[in-house]
Description:
By secondary structure, this protein is α+β, with helices and mostly antiparallel strands. The chain has two domains: about 100 residues; about 70 residues, Alpha-Beta Plaits (2-Layer Sandwich), CATH 3.30.70.2830. Helices cover about 65% and strands about 20% of the residues. The protein contains four helices and four strands. A four-stranded antiparallel beta sheet has the order 1-2-4-3. α2 crosses α3. The chain is rod-shaped and about 155 Å long. Keywords: Coiled coil, Membrane, Transmembrane, Transmembrane helix.
Amino acid sequence: MIRINLLPHRAEKRKQRRTQFYALSAAMIVLGALIGILVHSVYAGYIERQASRNAFLKAEIAKLDQQIAEIRRLREQIDALLARKKVIEDLQSTRAESVHLLNELAKGMPDGVYLKSVKQAGSRITLVGHAQSNARVSHLMRNLEDSPFLERPTLVEAKAVTVDDRRLSEFTLGIGIERTAVEEPAADAKGGKTQARGARK
């Protein structure tokens, strides 16, 4: 009977399988390392691109902040200019008020009445004066009420005083200015000047 010794063949097989296992393990380790490096590179690229985007956005936001500050500064300048323009327009629209006021006061002043002071606060006028009697004060109020440039004459105070050994009535009146009535003659005057200039030409 022939006997065959299989131990060397089995040992050789085991050795081959061990070698294949080691080679496969090394290949798996290398493949895992490559995959890890690849994933790291991909994520690093994503992070770098996102960082560059963030830097770009920060730069653009800084530019927008500067533009917003400039716009805010320009708006403040525009508001200041508009406020100055309004002041100038108000002054131009009311520059004839003093003339009209004095003219109307002169026309409406009855005999026996004279003024001590005339004060203006906005569209409200305060008159302080002396009259020979309260009836003359009432006459003055009626004349002022009939004026197209003045409105709402109101008697604030009336009291008896002695001036130069004469008994008089000291009064304080409040009246308003009808601004539309003051502005219309000014516009008419401007139109008349324009027509006169055209006729001269």
